[in-house]
């Protein structure tokens, strides 16, 4: 069976502007170039998989139902732009959670790589041929631990020491990594 390749995307700061605990449609603003990038990824047979930490759930700022409602709307917007998201994985936990049910250290919260492993198993993903775009080093550390081949930090200014990670200052510049 042929293995798939995936474009893994963090949500806040990559798909949408990170305004802090975004949980309502009216506060969700797509980043410039995200739909074009996703269309090009799909045209090159990449699955699009979102991997996102959602500490706002653990902190009682919104519920899992609120998250699912917003995620469904976001995925519909991608469909309207002919750039289907294959799956959205999320971690609702945080070690400093105010809601005890979510208070724990887990391996699904980035920089843990459990969500990447779950996606790899479910969709038979070739991790070396895959790409991760995140706006925090912890996103890339998780991808690195999972064996993702290309790890791109999307930010206006790269940190001084990126190590083996790459930097892009516009989502349009990430297209060249989709081989």
- Compute the average pLDDT: 96
Choose one word for the global shape: globular
Q: What series of H and E elements makes up the topology?
A: EHEHHEHEHEE
Low-confidence stretches: none
Number of domains: 1
Describe the structure.
- The chain is an alpha/beta fold.
- It has one domain (5-18, 32-177): HAD superfamily/HAD-like (Rossmann fold, 3-Layer(aba) Sandwich).
- It has 5 helices and 6 strands.
- The protein has helices at 34-43, 55-58, 64-80, 114-123, 137-145; strands spanning 5-9, 46-53, 87-91, 131-134, 150-154, 166-168.
- It has a 6-stranded parallel sheet, with helices on both faces.
- It starts with a strand and ends in an 11-residue tail after the last strand.
- The mean pLDDT is 96.
Provide a short characterization of the protein structure.
The chain is α/β, with parallel strands linked by helices and 179 residues long. Helix content is 28%, strand content 17%.
């Amino acid at each position: 069976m042929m293995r798939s390749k995936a474009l893994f995307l963090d949500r806040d700061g990559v798909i949408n502007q990170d305004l802090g605990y975004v949980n309502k449609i009216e506060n969700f603003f797509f980043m410039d170039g995200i739909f074009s990038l996703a269309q090009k990824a799909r045209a090159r047979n990449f699955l699009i998989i979102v991997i996102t930490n959602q500490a706002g759930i653990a902190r009682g700022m919104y519920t899992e139902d609120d998250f699912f409602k917003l995620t469904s709307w976001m995925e519909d917007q991608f469909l309207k732009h002919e750039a289907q998201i294959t799956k959205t994985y999320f971690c609702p936990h945080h070690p400093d959670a105010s809601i005890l049910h979510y208070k724990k250290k887990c391996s699904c919260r980035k920089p843990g790589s459990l969500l990447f492993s779950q996606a790899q198993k479910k969709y038979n993903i070739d991790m070396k041929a895959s790409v991760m775009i995140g706006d925090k080093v912890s996103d890339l550390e998780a991808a690195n631990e999972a064996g993702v081949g290309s790890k791109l930090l999307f930010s206006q200014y790269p940190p001084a020491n990126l190590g083996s990670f790459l930097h892009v200052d516009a989502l349009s510049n990430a297209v060249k990594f989709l081989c």
